[in-house]
Write a structure and sequence with these properties.
The complex is a heterodimer. By secondary structure, chain A is of the alpha+beta class. Chain A folds into 2 domains: 3-62 and 308-388, no CATH class; 76-304, C8orf32 fold (Roll). Chain A has 7 helices and 23 strands. In chain A, strands 7, 8, 9, 10, 11, 12, 13, 14, 15 and 16 form a 10-stranded mixed β-sheet that branches. A 6-stranded antiparallel β-sheet of chain A has the order 5-6-23-22-19-20, with no helix packed on it. In chain A, a hairpin with a 5-residue loop joins β19 and β20 (346-348). Classes of the chains: A alpha+beta, B alpha+beta. Chains A and B meet through α3 and β13 of A and α1 and α2 of B.
């Protein structure tokens, strides 16, 4: 049975088969509840009052098929990086989160020039490699190539309270940062200070790859710098293959540690195909990454671009009143924030126990919910508006 | 050389200089990898003229596109960028950039995609 035909328990979040009638029962925790639909246009009644959902942006929490090991935002090395390089100054005076992320990318781009790494190999095992790279670049003018830029960007993103992940496309390393503004992953190239957009919407690696396979990335533009300067049509053939490193806790586990897996799209675009690079081309055998035995292949776009920082709202009827419960999938969770009808925000430390009584007034009532991580960065807002008669 | 005040660490720019934090160069020469792209070059000049790269006063240079046609280009603060065909050149070309070029500005210039284009390994243009 697919997830769509099942009902999610608002108490323990277990999926189970939908039962006939208004009341549902969880097969896992055995709790009973009467759900209220949260999709736009749905009608229901509370104590005989007819109500209708007039607007709904409910950020559903999907069950993830692949785990991801996240860096703790409380890691002492992050605090040290913030202090030493005064990272707060990079994005000071910038309000929009995405613009702040562009400012960080611009800073990393300007931190050193592209070139061969001149640190002893393997440099990735140093727990303070970002600090080392920044220091050596500043003091000795050392240069490092794309892998190091991307790694540094992922760790510095953690210092800002953003979740980032390393993405290896063909012959190039880039990274994605989760954008709460756009509620999606956005690919960044901090070596060239670029990202990719279609119709002014920043794209993820999966979306760029799809555009490349569908229509040769006709509508994709390369965009440079914090001012989002359009560089013209993007050359996206290198996105035909890519892998996502399924961890960003690089202070403790450097990338390529053969512990954390890599996620690779395997779908109709590359069925039976081989990602061959370098020696694999000349020998006509082997597959990049696959030969290491640590790749997980995935065809579902929702899993490839698994949405994080989501706050899902469950509405339920109890004793003639409307109640709301919540589920989140925010890494480094700090608190759940809720408010009704634009009043002051209420903070809930424990999302699983949070329960909000939503007193519907005559006319339109709104319920808003979002999570904030331990670094104080808020996730996307879930909003439900209900119009009820007197 | 421009009249920019030079730091004690100011280095000659005939070869790729090693630049460290605190350096301020009056001039920098950047090589193209294999070729350049005209739309990217125009965008580079536009971005430089808006001050997004740093404090740049002028840019001159010559390069060829991937079809072998050579172009020279010139831009000076307050003026318009000029790109015109030039005599064929053998190597990939270069850009000479003058201004008050600090560590961050030089890195931004060196990392700009225009200077990294090559047939098998290019991202834009």
């Amino acid at each position: 049975m697919s997830v769509a035909t099942q009902v999610k328990c608002p108490f323990c979040y277990a999926y189970g088969p939908a039962r006939r009638g208004p009341e549902q029962e969880c097969d896992d925790c055995l709790r009973r509840w009467t759900p209220v639909p949260t999709r736009e246009g749905a009608a229901f009644s509370i104590s005989g009052r007819p109500c209708r959902v007039t607007a709904a942006v409910n950020n559903t929490v999907l069950p993830p098929r692949h785990g991801f090991a996240h860096e703790s935002f409380r890691h002492p090395d992050l605090a040290r990086l913030r202090r030493k390089y005064r990272l707060g100054r990079i994005a000071s005076g910038i309000n929009a989160e995405f613009d702040r992320q562009l400012a960080l990318r611009d800073w990393v781009c300007a931190a050193w020039a592209a070139g061969q790494p001149s640190v002893p190999f393997p440099p990735l095992v140093h727990e303070d490699h970002v600090d080392r790279m920044l220091t050596l670049a500043r003091r000795e003018g050392r240069a490092y190539f794309c892998t190091y830029k991307a790694m540094a960007s992922v760790e510095l993103a953690s210092a800002f309270g953003w979740t980032a992940r390393l993405v290896n496309i063909m012959k190039h390393m880039v990274h994605e940062i989760w954008s709460n503004d756009y509620n999606k992953w956005v690919l960044h190239d901090s070596l060239y200070n670029m990202h990719y957009e279609r119709d002014h919407l920043p794209l993820s690696a999966r979306e760029i790859r799809e555009e490349h396979h569908r229509n040769g990335a006709r509508g994709v533009r390369a965009v440079w710098g914090r001012g989002r300067r359009d560089l013209g049509p993007a050359h996206c053939a290198d996105f035909a293959w890519y892998v996502v490193y399924m961890h960003n806790n690089f202070f403790d586990f450097p990338p390529g540690d053969h512990i954390h897996p890599l996620l690779m799209p395997r779908d109709r675009w590359n069925r039976n195909g081989h990602w061959r690079q370098g020696v694999q081309i000349t020998r006509r055998r082997g597959d990049k990454y696959l030969c290491k035995g640590m790749v997980v292949e995935e065809s579902d776009p929702r899993q490839l671009d698994y949405k994080i920082n989501q706050t899902e709202v469950f509405l339920l009827q109890r004793e003639g009143a409307l109640w709301a419960r919540f589920q989140h999938n925010m890494p480094n969770y700090g608190a759940l924030m809720t408010r009704t009808d634009g009043h002051a925000w209420t903070t809930h430390r424990n999302c699983r126990k949070a329960e909000v009584l939503w007193p519907l007034r005559a006319g339109t009532s709104t319920l808003e919910a979002r999570c904030v991580n331990s670094a104080g960065v808020p996730g996307p807002l879930s909003v439900i508006a209900v119009r009820s008669a007197r | 050389m421009s009249g920019t005040r030079q730091s004690p660490r100011c280095v000659p720019t005939d070869k790729d200089p090693v630049v460290v934090a605190g350096d301020i160069l009056p001039e920098l020469r950047v090589q193209f990898w294999d070729f350049m792209s005209l739309p990217l070059l125009r965008e580079f000049l536009h971005i430089a003229s808006r001050g997004d790269l740093g404090k740049i006063d002028s840019i001159t240079g010559v390069g060829r596109t991937d079809n072998g046609r050579a172009y020279s280009f010139r831009w000076k603060r307050g003026g318009h960028a000029l790109v015109r065909k030039s005599a064929p050149i053998q190597n990939a070309g270069h850009a000479r950039i003058a201004g008050r070029l600090d560590f961050e500005t030089i890195n931004r210039i060196r990392n700009f995609p225009l200077f990294h284009l090559r047939p098998e390994f290019r991202y834009v243009g």
